[in-house]
């Protein structure tokens, strides 16, 4: 390649590269995007803590957008009122972060106690109206069941009839006297 061809190639490729003159600025990217938003008037921001909940949602959104645009400038250029309003709107006790009204915990505890009390009354009321347990749910009946199973050699490998069995078998209930059950065969 001759030097003239190289020179022509270099000049032709330079035309594809972006050029910036003294008056021309480089293209703006999202990281270098700078806005010069005007300061928001003090009457607009005055008492925002008291007015925020009562403001219509559209007005809240507009004010937040103005503050958001304003926060894109250097933080030192913002007024103290704008800084306070931006912080309060972003982190203040409103909406889901609102403080609970006085007496709310008292109501929660009272309603919970009432629910537990009502459940206890229903439980004991239903159990007082229920029939007594059947006679098969007594210690005496379950001991007789154990003896019957031993006599029949039920489960001789590892159960109640096996050698050296030390479990309690089918006994799981209190005696008939303790439960107030009669063992008469009247049923």
TrEMBL record:
GO cellular component, one term: respiratory chain complex IV
Listed transmembrane segments: 108-130
Cellular localisation: Mitochondrion inner membrane
Pfam families cross-referenced by the UniProt entry: COX4 (PF02936)
Source organism, top-level taxon: Eukaryota
UniProtKB keywords: Membrane, Mitochondrion, Mitochondrion inner membrane, Oxidoreductase, Transit peptide, Transmembrane, Transmembrane helix
GO molecular function: oxidoreductase activity
UniProt record, GO biological process: mitochondrial electron transport, cytochrome c to oxygen
Region spans: Disordered: 1-37, 163-187
Membrane topology: Single-pass membrane protein
Pathways involved: Energy metabolism; oxidative phosphorylation
InterPro entries for this protein: Cyt_c_oxidase_su4_fam, Cyt_c_oxidase_su4_sf
Keyword Zinc attached: no
Family: Belongs to the cytochrome c oxidase IV family.
Name listed for the protein in its UniProt record: Cytochrome c oxidase polypeptide V
Organism per entry: Knufia peltigerae
């Amino acid at each position: 390649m001759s030097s003239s061809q190289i020179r022509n190639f270099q000049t032709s490729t330079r035309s594809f590269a972006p050029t910036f003159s003294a008056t021309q600025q480089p293209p703006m990217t999202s990281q270098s995007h700078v806005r010069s938003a005007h300061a928001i008037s003090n009457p607009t921001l005055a008492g925002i803590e008291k007015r925020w909940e009562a403001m219509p949602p559209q007005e809240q959104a507009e004010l937040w957008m103005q503050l958001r645009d304003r926060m894109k400038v250097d933080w030192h250029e913002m007024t103290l009122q704008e800084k306070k309003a931006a912080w309060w709107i972003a982190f203040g006790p409103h909406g889901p972060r609102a403080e609970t009204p006085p007496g709310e915990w008292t109501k929660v505890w009272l309603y919970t106690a009432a629910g537990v009390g009502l459940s206890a009354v229903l439980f004991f009321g239903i159990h007082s109206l229920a029939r007594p347990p059947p006679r098969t749910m007594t210690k005496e009946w379950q001991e007789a069941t154990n003896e019957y199973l031993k006599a029949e050699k039920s489960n001789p490998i590892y159960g109640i009839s096996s050698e050296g069995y030390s479990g309690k078998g089918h006994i799981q209930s209190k005696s008939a006297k303790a439960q107030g059950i009669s063992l008469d065969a009247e049923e």
